[in-house]
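Question thread 4412

I'm putting together a teaching handout and wanted feedback from people who do this every day. The idea is simple: show students a protein as raw sequence, then show them the structure tokens that encode its fold, then repeat with a second protein so they can compare. Below is the first pair exactly as I plan to print it.
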Amino acid sequence: MIFLKNKMNLMNSFLRMTAVAFAVALLPVASHATIDTIAVDVGISVFKTMPIGVVPFAEPQKSIDWIEEKPHQIVTRDANLSGRFEVIASDKFNLPLFSKAHAKHYVTGKVTPEGGKLRVECYLYVAQTKDLLLGETYVVDQKDLRRAMHQFFDQVIYRLWGERGVASTKLAYVSKIDGIKQVVVADYDGFHRSQITRDTTISMMPVWMKDNAGLYYVNFKTHRPKLYSKMFGGTEKSVFPQLDQTYSPAVNPKTGELLFSSTVDGKTDLYVGNPATGKAKKFAYLKSNQTSPAWSPYASEVMFTSDRGGGPQIFVMGKDGSDLRRVTFMGRYNERAAWSPEGDRIAYTSMDNGHMNIYTCALDGSDIVQLTNNAGNNEHPTWSPDGKLIAFASNRSGSYQIYIMRKDGSNVTRITNSGENTSPTWSFFYDDFKQQKKEGK
């Protein structure tokens, strides 16, 4: 664990208790990523999965020089990560195999070179009758193949489940690059990583802007933790520079306002502000220290970590500071709550016998479920925007890496492989899917 006070002696004793694993390292991004997703643990899920066949896409006789995975391999990875499917792989259409496995549908397609690009035809069929349920065609550079297949797979999920998938979403996290912690962004499966910050001082605590147009994060370039914003493709800007120490940002999902922590004269309080105007004010006047805020999905309530009970515990209150109540009671160290998109549960980090593990519980603190129990530390949970998955950081392999699991703790999959990586935060849904459905695509 790395504590904020250890960096320039900046935080008070409470922040030492509410430490965040910031760590970590990643080699500079190449033009295309190597395959580095590793399944490390498969638990027993209480949720049913849908068997689905996956058949390699037809290719021209002249072999394509693939720089990453082939289309059916990307589909297979998306299906496994989604937690919704059991993949029935076959080299060709095999009705007896699909029928035996109860796979009522299968995915396949065709790839054709076209003017220096790839024409990728993607199909979802009914296995028994070969009726076409979904057909999508993409003409893309090979470097954009993964994005196209993610889009297609999200359409598959919508067609078979009537829900939005998260294959087109992204993760931001912290990596140590050339010895300095920097903010990076990658596809949700760990591919196509890009470096966002390039400072000579620590950058950490990234969160997504409401429209996914950029990130807010913390940097120590002034020898104080200060909030900054950066639009993708834009320049870095200081946020609320009038406040001496600002950190732990949380974005209001409705208005885009920032809720954050600020330390003044040794006391840490929550503030709320408008990044566009730079105006900020104290959110609540409490005697205790407050940090790690999180908005509810409809921005009607706020959850945060407080030491008002002696050790760090999770509390919730209304958006106007009313109706303060404690959520966690089991254990003496509970922090960093993340609100599920459905608004019915939270995920949080709790210390067990000197190790950090991830739990979920109902909003009244009941129905506690321990999701991780591996050696080492498992921390900083972040929900996928569909509420089906949780990404987190763990050093179970010896170094901190990013993992994804289902919300019941099953199907744990490691999505980073090199260096050390921590503090993941999942993007919001992108609006292009809504537009596609509106246009009937």
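The second pair follows. I'd like the answer to focus on this one:
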Amino acid sequence: MAAAKRKTKQSFAKAAKQIEKLAVGIHGKAIFGLRLIGEEIMLDVKASRSGAGVPVDEGTLRSTGRVEGPKHDEVELSFGGAAAPYALEQHENMELRHTVGEARYLVRGLERWQRDGASVRRALAALSLDVKKEILKRQAATAARRR
């Protein structure tokens, strides 16, 4: 697990450098553009699907995802809250196999982020598919109760 933590730190550092490059020259209110980038990354991570995003069983971990800031020209993305030990284990343990989501979900979301909005479009498409599946599931349950 130590190797995974080291790799996570390296990935975060690489993603932070990318974001810092984008932030160069941003002053005053424009710093809120960093918040938008953070929100885009979080949207992608929360749009869990097979092999991507935060692992989902009951949705508790996904519900703890937060974007905070900007504060001192920084935006913080986090998962966990009271479930922090669980969030860290799900993030760092590369041995866990997830039906929905992935290990290193936050780092991978940072790595997937693209300036042109493609990562957001993919996340929205995944969320749309999930919503459609849920609607069909509820319609089938309602029809079954009526029979």
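Top answer:
Good format. For the second protein you could add a caption like this: The chain has one domain: 2-146. DSSP finds six helices and two strands in the chain.
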